[in-house]
Amino acid sequence: MKFGAIISVGLTGILLMPVVNAGEKDKPKDGEQMVDSGSFGVFMNGRRVATETFSVQQTANGSVVSSQFKTDDAANKAAQSSELQLTPGAEIRKYEWKELSPGKAQATVAPNNDFLMEHISAGPDDKPVEQPFLLPASTSILDDYFFIHREILIWRYLATACKQEKGAIQCPASQKTQFGTMNPHQRSSVPLSLEFTGRDKVTIRGVDRELNKFVLRSEGGDWTMWVDDQFKLQRILIASDATEVVRD
């Protein structure tokens, strides 16, 4: 994806991964647990241009990934929201995207028999258009501008390509795993690979840290991503767009 466009106008379940070593006091209460929440600052050429605020909640019925994206340009405000509902098996139950400003477009994705169906509306008075995708419900949603979706993909990688030994996650270095993904914003499906490249020393907000490094490869270019030892996304570098995403 080209980020600048909007600026100018499981182990047993995917979400168990970050809390795989949780103790009794950290287990969900009443079937609900906040797995991750916070915000990402989005920088282009070193200047902050947008903020994504997100939460990832695990419930007895699956998981909910919610996000709001807002640009920081007072003269050209843009805002979007999304909510991804996953089953306990980490399959898509429903995905909903809304443009809050400057327009009022929206889209939903949900399983229809054995495949996915997207309903798109360009405005509140427009009749939704249906677009089928020959993709299973296990497809990963990677929508534009919602970087928390990349964290969810890393968790899926950890659940499928890595193993747990003595309470720790062990991932084979330089092993590429292929994923089928869907970008509802672009109404497209994109094959890509994710690779764990080992530990890496990186400076974030002036602090030197040693993190786990992953590289996401697709036809649109490479995204380099770093997560901490709790498998929470800390930084993304999109060199082709001179874009950096950093957890606040």
Give me a quick take on this structure.
This protein has helices spanning 4-8, 148-161, and strands at residues 32-44, 47-59, 62-71, 79-86, 92-101, 106-112, 115-121, 129-133, 140-141, 163-165, 168-170, 176-183, 188-204, 207-218, 221-227, 233-238, 243-247.
Word description of this protein:
The protein is mainly beta. It has one domain (4-247). Helices cover 8% and strands 55% of the residues. It has a 15-stranded mixed sheet. A two-stranded antiparallel sheet has the order 10-11. It is globular.
Secondary structure elements and their pairing?
Layout: H1 4-8, E1 32-44, E2 47-59, E3 62-71, E4 79-86, E5 92-101, E6 106-112, E7 115-121, E8 129-133, E9 140-141, H2 148-161, E10 163-165, E11 168-170, E12 176-183, E13 188-204, E14 207-218, E15 221-227, E16 233-238, E17 243-247
Parallel strand pairs: 9-12
Antiparallel strand pairs: 1-2, 1-17, 2-3, 3-4, 4-5, 5-6, 6-7, 7-8, 10-11, 12-13, 13-14, 14-15, 15-16, 16-17
